[in-house]
């Protein structure tokens, strides 16, 4: 699978990852949850291989971009009914 297809697949997976991380690490800080989500997405797109094969030429900038995607997914989910449906949260 080419890198662009893998990247788009990884991005599509972000809301599911965020939801799963929230279930696993709900009491942890937002920064810890974001780090965990980044790790999952990086693994899903095989980021290490993409860096090694030079498909990603600026790893820091790429990670910052993934972080913004995760932040956006969290913001969208928090603005939806999902926010009230999480365990331990008022509905």
Model description:
With 91 residues, this protein is mainly alpha-helical. The chain has one domain (3-79). Helix 2 packs across helix 3 and helix 3 crosses helix 5 (59-78). It is 74% helix and 0% strand.
Question: How would you describe this structure in keywords?
Answer:
single chain; 91 residues; mainly alpha
Number of strands: 0
| Spatial gap, N to C terminus | 41 Å
Average pLDDT, all residues = 87
The major β-sheet equals: none
What is the helix/strand order?
Answer: HHHHHH
Oligomer state equals: single chain
- Rg, rounded, reads 14 Å
Q: List low-pLDDT spans.
A: none
Strand-pairing-aware structural class? mainly alpha
Secondary-structure blueprint:
Elements: H1 3-12, H2 14-25, H3 30-44, H4 47-52, H5 59-78, H6 82-85
Helix pairs in contact: 2-3, 3-5
Short description:
This protein has six helices and no strands. The N and C termini lie far apart (41 Å).
């Amino acid at each position: 699978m080419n890198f662009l297809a893998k990247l788009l697949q990884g991005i599509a997976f972000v809301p599911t990852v965020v939801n799963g991380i929230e279930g696993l690490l709900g009491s942890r800080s937002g920064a810890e949850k974001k780090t965990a989500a980044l790790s999952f997405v990086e693994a899903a797109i095989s980021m290490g291989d993409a860096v090694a094969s030079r498909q990603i030429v600026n790893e820091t900038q790429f990670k910052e971009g993934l972080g913004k995607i995760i932040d956006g997914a969290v913001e969208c989910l928090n603005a939806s009914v999902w926010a009230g449906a999480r365990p331990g949260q008022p509905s």
